[in-house]
Amino acid sequence: MRVLPAIASALALLSVSSAAPLEERGPPAHALSKQLVTRVKLDGLLRHTNAFQKQADEGGNKNRVFGSKAHNATIDYIYNFGVQNGYETTIQYGTFPYSETIASSVSIVSPEVETPNVPINLMTFSPSTPEEGVTADVVNTGNLGCAATDYTDVTGKIALVQRGTCAFGDKAAAAGEAGAAGLLIYNTEDGELNGTLGSILEGAAPTGGISKADGEALIKLLEGGSAVSLNLKLIEIHENRGSANVCAETKSGNKQNVVMLGAHTDSVVAGPGINDNGSGSAGLLEVSYLFRNVKPNNAVRFCWWTAEEFGLLGAEHYVASLSEEQINDIALYLNFDMIASPNYFNGIYDGDGSAFETAGPEGSAAIEKLLIDFFAGQDAKSSPTAFDGRSDYGPFIDVGIPAGGTFTGAEGLKTEQEASWYGGKAGIAYDECYHAACDTTENLNSEAFVLHTKAIAHATAIYSDSTETVNGVASGRPGKGHGNRGKAKFTANRGTRAPCGSTPPSVQ
Asked: Where in the numbering of this chain does the PA domain appear (predicted)?
């Protein structure tokens, strides 16, 4: 990564709070932790999230989706903050595929039914129908639609197939080859079907996913003997957008044993993304501010990733750019994505795999333990959260870098046990504004926000001094302790990349 000016016009230097600087080197790790943790204040965090909200409000679309004016302003803000606070601050530019659903609907034109509109999710990378949609008869293929020969008499018609066996992209390509005007894939289990074709496929049929119940209802109509006509409208834009990652690294410390922390900066199209993930971005910014005068044993690198919401694209780009030596120079990676959910729980990534049977690379269990112990020391409960690679730590564990972090919940529902531990309401989503327009500055739980930022501060203090529990490199010891990690893939079956701990869009 090279030092470059921010991608939009430089902002004025940001005002910062006047807390006295910490000592430059000297306090032992636990003393430094105490100093940092004590100095984490809500006002310090809110100055950043308020800035993100203002950027979204002034950007024209009420979001901070990557490549937008508002997101470029977020990148500028972070870059200038790093420079102002004395870090080696760098920007890594890249071009990433962007897609946005403009229209997604299907309705029964004939026969006349009580509820003609069928809920549908456009599959990412689907070709678009004409603007007015396609009106055609639907054909139940009676099979899984994995080959062109599975489609009989579908030319100019909308094919209906069941999920399963092969990838959605294979089904879409086969349907297109057979001349289908559209493809509906119905689920094999309860609930809606979100999916992706994996990439843009030339000649594929416009494709959407519907529920098992709606698929079976269409089949029942067809079994009545009369033709069933649908109007299918699927419109998605595809383009490449320029964006950037930002990293701010301490000028001192062992550069062969770097402690990395990361959070993504972008939002979805639907809203400004202040919890997801303005909260994690703000937590890193504030800890970097409090840490600015420390001279650590190990170099500390704070990074903010672009395009997470489109498949971890920024973090993937960063890791792919690293040489084998640079990979081996990273002691560990800590990820913070959604740390202020309104109906929160204290989630810690399951580094040892004891809860979800998917452990991180060697050393991840030690990171999990450090965070569990921290929450216990704050008289707070904690719960394991699946370490499945579906946030920006994914590319790091892919190359064997120990990883961990915290998470306060997305669209999942709080359990009775969690409600008894953390308060809030059981049976309600951790964040009811997840990926929605209401994810604003009003959507932050102050208690969770401060507590999880304190966890960031604690981990930064401890690991900036020594990563011995993670990779064997003790305080003050030069060189590397983790050997040649290389680019060998970490073997975890995570499926398709998906943002923010959410259920991923399926590929089949």
From this structure: 134-218
> Is the separation of the CB atoms in 417 and 361 below 8 Å?
no
Considering 308, 309, 316, 418, which one is annotated as catalytic? Answer: 308
Beta bridge partners of 103: 235
Instruction: Answer whether 135's CB lies under 8 Å from 109's CB.
Output: yes
Interstrand relation of 158-162 and 403-407 (parallel, antiparallel or unpaired)? unpaired
In this predicted model, what pLDDT tens digit does every residue of 169-203 receive, in sequence order? Answer: 999 999 999 999 999 999 999 989 988 898 889 99
pLDDT, one tens digit per residue, over 362-414 is 999 999 999 999 999 999 999 999 987 779 999 999 999 999 999 999 999 99
User: What is the pLDDT averaged over residues 267-283?
Assistant: 98
Q: Is 200 exposed, middle or buried (0-12, 13-18, 19+ CB in 10 A)?
A: middle
- What angle is formed at CA 288 by the lines to CA 284 and CA 289, rounded to 5 degrees? 120
Task: Give the number of other CB atoms < 10 A from CB of residue 488.
Answer: 11
Q: Which domains does the chain have, with CATH numbers?
A: 29-87+250-471 (3.40.630.10), 98-239 (3.50.30.30)
310 within 8 A of 105, measured Cβ to Cβ: no
Contact 333, 312 (CB under 8 A): no
DSSP state of 123: P
pLDDT tens figures, 404-413: 999 999 999 9
Q: Which of 91, 402, 95, 378 is nearest to 239 (CA)?
A: 95
Of 389, 391, 417, 397, nearest to 338 (Cα)? 391
Q: Calculate mean pLDDT across residues 8-21.
A: 38
Amino acid at 197: L
Q: Is 411 a residue of the active site?
A: no
